[in-house]
From TrEMBL:
Ranges of residues in domain DNA mismatch repair proteins mutS family: 1097-1113
Residue ranges crossing the lipid bilayer per the database entry: none
Family designation: Belongs to the DNA mismatch repair MutS family. MSH3 subfamily.
Name listed for the protein in its UniProt record: DNA mismatch repair protein MSH3
Length: 1237
């Protein structure tokens, strides 16, 4: 391209994904350099008439639609087809390169400069030789990852795949002339761009200067161009210190203080290889002394700037500076500087706008148009005010921290103030992330779609922020840590905390994460590698989890206590210290205190820390009086969510949840995840459920009306908490207060009766129901709610009209004064009319209002001749003219000021009212908690009404442990299966020192007096694959959990002691994120059970030992069961496919019994303890693969085979494969040997 060498220049601009190329390209455009975008070239080639249309048509005819290439249709052909992709590249890439070169020549002939943006084949196809210089846009790898991973649909795997297809960044930097850094402030990047343009303009002014020589000179002589001889690129870095620049230039060689920093100090004269380096870019005048002189002038020019001069005509070293920012642009930059890491949505007039990188992110996430704003000097995008909440939710759900910046002054007040010529004052008024969204102002975030459904979802409609702190545990095995966790639900006020010791598996941490299901993690670093793996796996398993890291050492050595003591000792929203919360904090373990301090720091900028001042809201993750359910039990028993898609349907929670309120659904989720293990408390719940079950048309009127009353309450818990945060609207607060004031009368309760020494509900027998109904009908709460409603205009509140909201002038004097001022301004405006009527002799003269023209105009006929001098004509028609008299204009200004002052006064009064409300938050929340418990009990009563459900019986804890279930059914399967009934099964287990002989079933396990007869401590369950073994043991565990929640159970009879824990080992899956194989995962879970189980625990184990060889697996299964029976002494259900495990029944008679799932074998009677016709009965043909009919009935005995080939046939393996497997099975022996000794 010889023509380029004599005038214009061409710059190749490239860089990897996420480096900020588009931002840099816009900087070139702003400075008059046209930019050829690679995507634009491809777009033109694919458009109708483009050169690529016919080649694509020849490959994929259906990819050409209406004469143009459809990228969507083409993409469908290329997905997963590497050969097709190569054919398209071979056809299109030469055309792309040809088109770029054509554009380059055209601009060169017109004498225009050019920058080529994002040329993927710059270094591979020779395009490098077609430009005068190459600039690489660069940023550190961590900045690049952060930018790219913020894009929708991007993840680590996709990013790695993209980078693998590109030329490595270090190669690009070595082969480029300039490196533009984008990890610095935008103004610094702009300076780099300006200097590159200066460099190339100098070349144009001095004829045949080559950028290669410039790069060689500043890189220091021998810099590594390799075979081509190009030097390492200079790194542009300006400085403002004239003296240092002068010193650098005077020394003759670049140094750390030089304006252009490239490499080590070097001679000024470029080496011959460097001067001749860019052969393909033209010969040029070589160097000698002239080249050195040009280089010196260029270097001085680069440092001084073209316009800078010292006194006496000597040039200065002032750096080239970007154009002066407008006041609005400067304000936006200052806001972005003060709030790093926050995506800002800024109120500008009647829109909310995004600027800079925020605009590009919003464009991608919200699918809105982004453009370059010349006045702002940056990319911009906007959304209308009514759609703000939609886009805030989209951005937050995409994982961003979103800030709302609002104008804090109005036009009228600004016009009357001292800063009328300055931009509107703006400040950050709200911050939102996933964990704080639902606690936000509804004007900003709106209402979540399907909120009621979400409240019944897997996380209970909650969004917890979980802070995690850990330290190495002393005196324990390697890898053990002490962990402190605090979970804060800002929209409901729930605060959970725990400190615990955790092993290598981190099962305790996993269990708490599973229950809280956090939407945000606040991680205090450093963490141990095992904890990092678990939290990383948790975040990667759900795209809805956002993680943020903080420095853990900030609150070491007592810093957390000092922070919290200072916080709780200061006056809070209610005007007094939070003494209850401070006392609760003082009793917390040290790591919990540290986690709470980090959570407080995080929530304060959001303005959502008020929930931490309410000590009554603090509660542990799990208490001593609760049944322990490990993470495995929660997942494997599908307690909170199903294992198919993670949704609620098919889980135990789904079965039990018939709640009428969102806050009731959240409490029920906590009840199901943390059942009781106190017999008295369980009995109270069962009494309440039984009484509610009997309440109907003929029952107590209060209990009969309970369901209907609860259904109309709304989410009172969130309404109260949002009022505490001062984000509630008047309509929301009034709705909440109305409900609290009216719930007692709606139920027919005598409000405050218990406080007067009377029973609130005389006919209710349940102590728990009496207590909850009395708390819900608290006189204190009812009176406070009624008093607050009395000072508000409820009709105005429901319209969210804050100006008319305050009915009591005595209570809100500021609003009353502002109203009076507004009335005076209105009267003054109306008082001008009589004088104007007399002056104009128009007795019917009135003000005229026209949209977009004004509200108080005087309308006169066109031919009216007596218009006073000084009246401003606003608009006119063929018949009338509209005027604005000076006096009216002045009065209108006063009216606007009075209106806005009233709005400000109303806003301050509303804030003060919510501050006063904070003092009532705790008692009102207690009333809502009582209503939530009533809702849960009502839900359990609805379940108890199902056919075949009975009240479980609990035996004394002084006697031996036992589990006796007659006719038990799997509760969830029973609810889901409607076509055929679930086959009931009995389960009889009994502990103690010498339980006696084996029990033959639940019905035989009880004597006439109801005393448990002899029964085994453990059942070994065998049977065919898919015969119902796993379903049976899950059924027993779920019935225990339901009973200790306080629910009736699906059985003919259920009698048990109170268990302290349910431990499970079921299923087979690896955990690659934690680096654990399937077998390691299996044995790790078993190890945790053996360590944690007690004689009062229920343990269910399913197919232990199948992840290794038969002999090893059998040995492990035998040893594990023997340990549970002989040493732990817990009740155990043990499913196995190893018949030899049943040999323990002979070693421990009375302690271990054998059961098998019955079946029908083709041509044989139902299975017995020694079933006939096993798979080893024949050596070949169909006899080796019998057909099995499952009966799903548990009977005494041991199944001698698992009939795996029958399942192979059910899985539709080819029949030849099944028969061949049957013959092989027959040759190698179809039956296990006798049980091991």
């Amino acid at each position: 391209m010889s023509s380029v060498e004599h005038g214009p220049y061409a710059l190749g601009l490239t860089g990897s994904i996420g480096m900020g190329k588009s931002t840099v390209a816009q900087m070139f455009r702003d400075r008059g350099v046209p930019v050829l975008d690679a995507d634009r070239v491809v777009h033109d080639l694919y458009s109708s008439g483009g050169k690529a249309v016919e080649p694509i048509r020849s490959l994929f005819p259906d990819a050409v639609v209406d004469g143009a290439v459809s990228r969507t249709a083409l993409g469908l052909h290329l997905i997963g087809d590497q050969a097709a992709l190569r054919r398209v590249e071979a056809a299109v890439h030469p055309l792309v390169a040809e088109e770029r070169v054509r554009w380059l020549h055209g601009l060169a002939e017109r004498g225009e400069p050019l920058a080529l943006l994002d040329v993927p084949l710059l270094f591979e196809t020779g395009m490098e030789a077609e430009v005068d210089a190459v600039a690489v846009v660069n940023a550190p790898a961590d900045v690049q990852r952060q930018r790219v991973l913020a894009r929708p649909g991007m993840d680590e795997i996709k990013l790695a795949a993209i980078l693998a297809r590109q030329v490595p960044d270090e190669v690009k930097r070595k082969r480029a002339d300039f490196v533009i850094h984008t990890d610095v402030p935008l103004e610094e990047t702009a300076k780099q761009v300006a200097h590159i343009i200066m460099t190339l303009r100098e070349r144009r002014e001095h004829g045949k200067w080559r950028a290669a020589e410039v790069g060689a000179f500043f890189s220091g002589g021998s810099g590594g161009r390799g075979e081509a001889g190009r030097a390492s690129p200079p790194v542009i870095d300006l400085m403002d210190d004239d003296e240092k620049a002068e010193e650098a230039l005077g020394n003759g060689a670049p140094s750390e203080a030089a304006a252009v920093v490239g490499g080590p100090a070097a001679p000024r004269t470029a080496s011959p290889g460097q001067r001749a380096g860019r052969g393909a870019r033209g010969g040029g005048r070589a160097g000698g002394v002239d080249a050195v002189a040009r280089h010196e002038r260029f270097q001085r020019k680069l440092a001084q700037g073209p316009a800078g001069r010292r006194r006496g005509g000597e040039p200065t070293a002032a750096a080239v500076r970007p154009a002066k920012l407008t006041p609005m642009a400067a304000q936006v930059q200052e806001l972005q500087r003060r709030h790093p890491g926050v995506l800002l949505i800024i109120e500008v007039g009647y829109k909310f706008r995004f600027f800079g990188a925020d605009a590009e992110v919003a464009s991608q996430v919200c699918n809105i148009f982004a453009y370059h704003d010349e006045k702002m000097g940056a990319m911009s995008a906007s959304v209308p005010v009514p759609r703000l909440h939609v886009h805030v939710r989209r951005l937050v759900e995409a994982g961003h921290k979103v800030g709302i910046v609002r104008q804090t002054e109005t036009a009228a007040l600004k016009k009357a103030g001292d800063n009328r010529s300055a931009p509107f004052t703006r400040r950050l008024t709200a911050l939102y992330t996933r964990a704080t969204l639902e606690a936000g102002d509804r004007d900003d975030v709106g209402d979540a779609e399907g909120a009621e459904a979400a409240a019944r979802g897997s996380a209970g409609g909650q969004s917890y922020l979980v802070a995690v702190v850990e330290r190495t545990a002393g005196g324990g095995p390697a890898g053990e840590v002490e962990v402190g966790m605090v979970a804060v639900e800002t929209s409901t006020g729930d605060v959970l905390h725990a400190q615990f010791r955790d092993g290598l598996m981190r099962s305790e941490m996993e269990g708490r994460l599973m229950f809280a299901a956090p939407s945000e993690l606040l991680i205090a670093t450093p963490l141990s590698p095992y904890s990092e793996r678990l939290l990383g796996a948790y975040c990667s398993s759900s795209a809805a989890v956002r993680a943020e890291r903080v420095a853990g050492e900030k609150y070491d050595l007592g810093g957390a206590i000092a922070k919290l003591t200072s916080y709780y000792s200061s006056s809070g929203p209610g005007g007094r210290p939070a003494e209850v919360a401070l006392a609760a904090v003082m009793d917390m373990p040290p790591l919990v205190v540290q986690a709470l301090a980090h959570a407080l720091d995080y929530l304060k900028p959001f303005g959502l820390d008020a929930v931490l001042r309410c000590g009554a809201a603090f509660r542990p993750f799990s208490a001593r009086g609760e049944l322990v359910l490990s993470p495995n039990a929660l997942a494997q028993l599908e307690v909170l969510r199903n294992s198919d898609d993670g949704g609620p349907r098919g889980s135990l929670l789904w079965l039990l949840d018939n709640t009428r309120t969102a806050f009731g659904a959240r409490l029920l989720r906590s009840w199901v995840a943390h059942p009781l293990c106190d017999a008295a408390l369980i009995g109270e719940r069962l009494d309440a459920v039984e009484e509610l079950l009997g309440a109907g048309d003929e029952g107590d009127a209060v209990l009969a009306r309970l369901g209907g009353t609860l259904g109309g309450l709304g989410d009172l818990e969130r309404g109260l908490t949002r009022a505490l945060h001062k984000t509630a609207s008047p309509a929301e607060l009034v709705t909440t207060l109305r409900a609290l004031a009216s719930v007692g009368p709606a139920l027919g309760l005598q409000v405050g009766a218990e406080e007067d020494g009377m029973e609130a509900v005389p006919n209710v027998k349940s102590v728990l129901l009496q207590r909850l109904l009395a708390a819900a009908a608290s006189r204190e709460v009812s009176d406070a709610a009624s008093e607050m409603l009395g000072v508000l205009d409820e009709a105005a509140a429901m319209e969210n009209d804050r100006v008319a909201l305050f009915a009591s002038e005595a209570r809100f004097p500021g609003v009353a004064d502002a109203r009076e001022e507004l009335a005076e301004a209105q009267a003054a405006l109306e008082g001008l009319l009589p004088e104007m009527r007399r002056e104009l002799r128009q007795p019917r003269l009135q003000y005229t209002s026209v949209v977009n023209q004004g509200d108080h105009m005087i309308e006169l006929p066109v031919d009216f001749r007596g218009v006073p001098k000084g009246w401003q004509k606003v608009a006119g028609t063929k018949r009338v003219n509209r005027y604005l008299p000076p006096a009216v204009k002045a009065a209108e200004t006063q009216l606007e000021l009075a209106t806005e002052r009233l709005q400000l006064a109303a806003g301050k009064a509303w804030t003060a009212f919510l501050t006063e409300f904070a003092g009532w938050y705790a008692p009102m929340r207690a009333a809502v908690a009582a209503l939530a418990a009533l809702d849960c009990l009502h839900s359990l009563a609805a379940v108890a009404g199902n056919a075949g459900y009975v009240r479980p019986e609990f035996v004394s804890q002084d006697g031996p442990q036992q589990l006796d279930i007659a006719g038990g059914r799997h509760p969830v399967l029973d609810a889901l299966t409607t076509e055929s009934p679930v086959v009931p099964n009995d389960c009889c287990l009994r502990g103690g020192e010498n339980p006696g002989g084996a029990c033959q079933g639940g019905r035989e396990g009880l004597g006439d007096g109801g005393d448990p007869g002899p029964g085994p401590r453990a059942l070994v369950v065998t049977g065919p694959n898919m015969g119902g073994k796993s379903c049976f043991i899950r059924q027993a565990a779920l019935i225990v959990i339901m009973a200790q929640v306080g629910s009736f159970v699906p059985a003919e009879r259920a009698r048990m002691h109170v268990f302290d824990a349910v431990h499970t080992r079921m299923g087979a899956s690896d955990n690659l994120a934690m680096g654990r194989s399937t077998f390691l995962e299996e044995l790790s879970e078993t190890s945790a059970i053996l360590e944690a189980a007690t004689p009062r625990s229920l343990v269910i184990v399913d197919e232990l030992g199948r992840g290794t060889s038969t002999h090893d697996g059998l040995a492990i299964a035998l040893a594990t069961l023997e340990h549970l029976v002989s040493r732990v002494g817990c009740l155990t259900l043990f499913v196995t496919h190893y018949p030899k495990v049943a040999g323990l029944a002979q070693m421990y008679p009375g302690l271990v019994a054998c059961r098998c799932m019955s079946y029908l074998q083709e041509g044989a009677p139902p299975a017995s303890p020694q079933p006939r016709g096993g798979p080893g009965a024949g050596a070949g043909g169909a006899a080796a693969v019998p057909r099995i009919t499952f009966l799903y009935k548990l009977v005494p005995g041991v199944a001698d085979c698992s009939f795996g080939l029958n399942v192979a046939r059910m899985a539709e393996l080819p029949e030849a494969v099944v028969l061949r497997a049957g013959r092989a099975r027959g040759r190698h022996g179809g039956r296990h040997r006798a049980p091991l000794e």
